[in-house]
Amino acid sequence: MEHENAKILSAKGELSDDVASSYEKLRKSYDQLYRNISSLAEALDMQPPVMPEDNHTTRVTMGEDGSSPVAAKDLNVPEPIWDDEDTKAFYESLPDLRAFVPAVLLGEAESKVNEQPSKTQESLGDMAPDLDQGQMTPLESLDAPSDAASVPEGITNENGKEKEEKQSSKEKEKTKDLDKEKTKDSETHRKGDAEKDKTKVLEGTSLDGLLQRLPGCVSRDLIDQLTVEFCYLNSKANRKKLVRALFNVPRTSLELLPYYSRMVATLSTCMKDISSVILQMLEEEFNFLINKKDQMNIETKIKNIRFIGELCKFKIAPPGLVFSCLKACLDDFTHHNIDVACNLLETCGRFLYRSPETSLRMANMLGILMRLKNVKNLDPRHSTLVENAYYLCKPPERSARVSKVRPPLHQYIRKLIFTDLDKTTMDHVLRQLRKLPWDECEEYLLKCFMKVHKGKYGQIHLIALLTAGLSRYHDEFGVGVVDEVLEMIRVGLELNEYGMQQRRIAHMRYLGELYNFELADSSVIFETLYLLLVFGHGTAEQDVLDPPEDFFRIRMVITLLQTCGQYFGRGSSKRKLDRFLLYFQRYIICKGAVPLDIEFDLQDLFAALRPNMTRFTSIEEVDAALEVFEESERTASNDKSGNDKNGDGEKRSNSKAMLLNGKNNTNGMGENGKIHGGGGGDSESESSIIDPAEEESDPHGSGSEDDEDDAGRPAVSDEDETVRVRQKLADVDPLEEAEFEQRLKSVIQESLESRRQDMRTRPTSTMMIPMNLLEGSGKDQHGRGGDGESGDEAVDEECGDNKEVPVKVLVKRGNKQRTRQMLIPRDCSLIQSSKQQEAAELEEKQDIKRLVLEYNDREEEEMSGLGGQGQGFIQPGNIRGFHRGSTWEGSGGRGGRFYYKPHHHGGNEGYYSRKR
Q1: CB under 8 Å, gap of 24 or more: what pairs does 421-428 form?
Q2: Which terminus of the chain has a smaller tally of CB atoms within 10 A, N or C?
Q3: Are 501 and 607 part of one and the same domain?
Q4: Where in the sequence does UniProt note compositional bias of the Acidic residues kind (predicted)?
């Protein structure tokens, strides 16, 4: 009955009235029976019968065995008390002091000698030691073992003195010898006392050093070694000092409590008084602190309760003491009592919940704890403490995680991307991915590339570089990656879940790296930036999509600009970023007070991108700055439109030059020669060849040079128009284009002036005949006759085998100009130089034709998808920091233009005019 009651007490903490009354009745009947048997045995002069030992046979009772939760728990496999083998060895595998220390030092030698005399009192004093020891005060019970051990020595000394007196009465003759012996004995006793004093001093000094080493024992081996060393200094005074040192552990050194508890548990196997005294001191301190009910000394309270919990795991402190402390905290579940209860559960709650003897009672205590947490209005810190302590003791039931079974090809892809990829293995990984069967694994590759948040943040640029490398061979793969990244960014904005924040940051970094490797355009970046600022605003779900206290969108903008913002420092992208940063400041001000970490990131961002930009503090200042910025842009656009009207002829000539990159390859050579070969004649001849239709269509005529460029141009075909429209659809800033046109105009004008000066200084061998000197209707303005021959062509055909060549010479008499025909010897330097010049011009014509045809073939391959993607093109005003391995060989690329200007040689104009 006592054993069953003990189990009920450990499980529930109290006994019912029926159980207590039945136990009292059985106890009284047992005492009466034992007295009667004792008196009968005394009357018969016999020993009372020895009662059989109770083997603690378990049976079904109303205690923990009869409850349904434990019964159901017993059906399952019991959970292990300890999480791992190291923890189990720390709390259960204690060193055996008897194997290291002699029994004399442990105080066990005298107890073996006195085992026989104590057998007679074994039956009567069965429960006395526990009661007597429980009535002792702390630090006084340490005297009990040494006093008990000294009693047999006193008895033996008294017996020895009586024998000496009897011998002295019988033998009076030897009194003198005895006196001499006594004097010798007294001298030896004095020497022994002096030696004992010396040993005590040595022990005291060694004990002080041992206690000083105690706070440094932060491992199992160190504390076990210190425990063995203390056994060699074992004494009553030293045990008192050790208990005080263990009890006075620093309140901030909670990591020492498990090792101190291990020392107490190890010593308690041979010195029962140490564990009982320190437990009593801890219990008295706990009662004092909890009854004081002040909100002071929280660290002392936590140290006290954690010490009790550690001793409970070593099975030194009984579970009833832990439950009584926990019950005292739950009765007044406020302030520091919440912290004390949570620290107790964190220390030994899991141990008590998994122990079969205390599982039911701990489950009841945990249920009470959660009910109190739900009923009381706890602050967030205490609420979190309670939940952590509860789930640490009783983790929520979860099903076992089922690992995915992937095919070997998918496992190899994941190994290459998430494990093998680094700076040194980049080329190897790219080659291995190119060898894969893309028809089967392209979709899975795209899925893996979108899981950049599962890898290292510092390797996202390697994933982007790998994407750029693969897109050179699989165009649709790069497009798919960019599309998926943009989709995931929008999904993150629509959901705005806290668990997706790491993924959203990784995707912003990934998008910036894709721009750096020219897989995305700047328009995509700015559209994403503005989407981060305005998405969800003005709708009913604004507080859900972008709460006022949520600053994560600011962090996303910072991440994207830190990745690729350094490339927006020139041209139109610079103005776009300046405009966005103004709107970004407006968004930040509308958010209110920004956390310090985000504020520091903002300062770093502005210092890196726009160190001279003003940080505004109010919305009015930002609105004023935006108005000034937009007004300056409107002014610049108006100036640009004015320049367009005034320089329409130049732009049309430039557009015609651009048309040379199109599909019109048949007339391209002649037009090139005509356009870029001007400047050969005087003003009268130049003005004489203006096309009337062209003059009518150009009301803003801009001079003879433009008219020269437009002379003889055929009507632009539909195919040329489509090419020009395709080039106009490129993303080119108007202001940047106007600046480029102005610079190009100045370069062309300077070139024309230099060519005019050059041509005036050199003698001309061929020139056009003036209109007023044309003879008859059979000749055109170039002096060609009805047979279509003139100039050098006539020379070629008419000379034949003659040694003289007929030529026409323009002469002037007064105000009249006439032409005369002359015969010049064929070996003349004039004729020879003319022939050499024609041969050089013919060779130049062939070179120009070959270059234009090669460019057109390359452009057709790019448009049909047969060639490479041309990722290395350079955009005006947007020079990237990194380009892939392809080189720029004359192609304009995305958003650029291609201009080709052939070299000029003297006499080109006359030659091309004759070859028309």
Answers
A1: 421/455, 421/459, 421/462, 421/463, 421/466, 422/459, 422/462, 423/462, 426/462, 426/465, 426/466
A2: C
A3: yes
A4: 789-799
Residues 449 and 436 sit within 8 Å (Cβ to Cβ) = no
Q: Per-residue pLDDT averaged across 307-317, rounded? A: 94
pTM, 2 dp: 0.41
Highest mean pLDDT among 244-258, 774-788, 853-867: 244-258
Average pLDDT of 863-877?
49
Residues 433, 387 share a domain? no
Cβ pair 317, 308 in contact under 8 A: yes
Q: pLDDT digit string (tens) for 482-508?
A: 999 999 999 999 999 999 999 999 999
Spatial separation of the C-alpha atoms in residues 97 and 103, rounded to whole Å: 9
Alpha-helical runs (H) found in 269-318: 272-292, 298-313
Residues 505 and 625 in one domain: yes
CA dist 879 to 20, 466, 515, Å?
92, 21, 12
**pLDDT at residue 115 above 70?**
no
Q: Last residue of some domain: 599, 615, 637?
A: 637
C-alpha distance across the termini of the chain, in Å: 129
The proportion of the chain whose per-residue pLDDT surpasses 90, expressed as a percent, equals 44
Same domain for 417 and 540, yes or no, is yes
- pLDDT: which is higher, 652 or 281: 281
Asked if 295 and 221 sit in the same domain, the reply is yes
Q: How far, in Å, CA of 508 to CA of 503, rounded? A: 9
| Pair 416, 271 in one domain | no
Phi and psi at 464, nearest 5°, equal -65, -40
Query: The domain spanning residue 282 has which CATH number?
Result: 1.25.40.180
pLDDT digits (tens, 9 = 90+) for 143-188: 544 443 333 334 334 444 444 444 444 444 444 554 555 555 555 5
- Range of lowest pLDDT (71-85, 313-327, 739-753): 71-85
Let me know whether 414 and 389 are in one domain: no
Residue 140 located in a structural domain: no
Range of the domain at 38: 1-43
Give me the number of domains the chain comprises. 3
Domain assignment of residue 132, yes or no: no
Number of Cβ atoms within 10 Å of the Cβ of 633: 13
Evaluate if residue 684 carries a pLDDT over 50.
Answer: no
The last residue of one of the domains, among 361, 393, 425, is 393
Q: What is the DSSP letter of 875?
A: B
Bigger pLDDT: 425 or 898?
425
Q: Alpha helix (H) ranges present in 293-406?
A: 298-313, 319-331, 336-354, 359-375, 380-393
Q: Is residue 6 part of a domain?
A: yes
Helix residue spans in 711-802 (DSSP H): 718-728, 734-761, 791-799
Instruction: Please check whether residue 282 lies inside any domain of the structure.
Output: yes
Is pLDDT of 912 > 60? no
Q: Say whether both 443 and 374 belong to one domain.
A: no
